[in-house]
Design brief:
By secondary structure, the chain is of the alpha+beta class. It contains seven helices and six strands. It has a six-stranded antiparallel beta sheet, covered by helices on one side. Strand 3 and strand 4 form a beta hairpin. The protein is globular and about 60 Å long.
């Protein structure tokens, strides 16, 4: 059971940021396993069990990221990440193109939410087409999002909308190349206790109706077809 991260977790994240090389990591690997990866795995298990309990028919899986960077994509960076994240999602051959729930912890801040890492243009076109066909469900979700203060809609935007939104309320969705509904803040005391579990589960409960809306987009017809 997750009991919280600790000061060693934070020390390790800052240490690997400024000592991103194999000798340092190998000397501190047990700290990584005991104080970073293991509590993240325990937290991920609790988040996964809760979300699957709410969405038992979605075939969800839980993941915790690896600290090792892809050697093909270092781009001058060190071989290790200074942050970890957990996710709950459906299996997908292109995971970046599917919606997921996530929590991420880094040396300066933490975040959680639901959305796409990199939605495909076709996915966003299907979203716009679905809203065009029946704007009421997304209007309801958007009003609900605007009434709360925990999460914000974020993501890359087109310079100009791809098409006209049916209402001013829905215009932000027509500007998005990809998106997330998330929350980010500096490291807080609740990370060091079970308080963060309650915070995450309450937030993910709020996001479940959004996930249910977006996860079915892949089955929508291609709007480019006649």
């Amino acid at each position: 059971m997750f009991q919280g991260f600790d000061d060693t977790t934070v020390d390790f994240m800052w240490g690997i940021r400024f000592n991103n090389e194999k000798p340092w990591f190998e000397a501190h690997k047990q700290e990584y396993l005991d104080h970073f990866y293991t509590p993240m795995r325990e937290l991920g298990d609790e988040v996964y069990d809760h979300i699957v309990g709410q969405l038992p028919d979605c075939g969800l899986i839980g993941k915790v990221s690896r600290i090792y960077r892809d050697a093909r994509r270092l781009f001058g960076r060190g071989p290790y990440k200074d942050h970890l994240w957990l996710s709950v999602e459906q299996p997908h051959e292109q995971w970046t193109a599917a919606p997921c729930f996530w929590f991420e912890l880094g040396p300066e801040n933490w975040s959680y939410g639901m959305g796409y890492y990199m939605a495909r243009p076709l996915t966003m076109a299907k979203l716009r087409a679905r809203i065009d066909r029946d704007p009421a469900p997304m209007e309801k979700l958007t009003r609900k999002l605007e009434r709360q203060t925990e999460f914000v809609l974020d993501g890359q935007e087109y310079k100009r909308p791809r098409s006209a939104a049916p209402s001013q309320l829905l215009e932000p969705w027509y500007l998005k190349k990809n998106f997330s509904i998330g929350h980010e803040e500096p490291l807080t005391e609740e990370l060091f206790s079970r308080a963060i579990v309650d915070r995450l589960l309450t937030g993910f409960d709020f996001l479940i109706p959004y996930y249910q809306y977006f996860v079915t987009l892949e089955g929508d017809p291609d709007p480019r077809d006649p």
